[in-house]
């Protein structure tokens, strides 16, 4: 008689949970990047302003910058 293991089910559930957490974290960071960009002044045009503006269109960059 075969033993049915639950390791595959646990791995799938863990993968879905981890993927969902990364997706939510990325979206939150991207939105924070937009908020921080809106709060920055444009008067002295800094490199961080330009990089944050690029981060709006390049979502992984914006997600990381949102947490910085």
Structural account:
78% of the residues lie in helices and 0% in strands. The chain has 3 helices and no strands. The protein starts with 6 loop residues before the first helix and ends with a helix.
Compile the SSE list and pairings.
Blueprint (H helix, E strand, L loop, with lengths): L6 H33 L7 H11 L1 H9 L1
Computed structural class: mainly alpha
How can the largest sheet be summarized? none
Globally, the shape reads: rod-shaped
Ends distance: 55 Å
Q: Give the ordered list of helices and strands.
A: HHH
Number of strands: 0
Number of helices: 3
Report the sheet-strand fraction.
under 5%
Helix share, percent: over 70%
Radius of gyration: 19 Å
Q: Show unreliable segments.
A: none
Please state the average pLDDT score. Answer: 89
Oligomeric state of shown chains: single chain
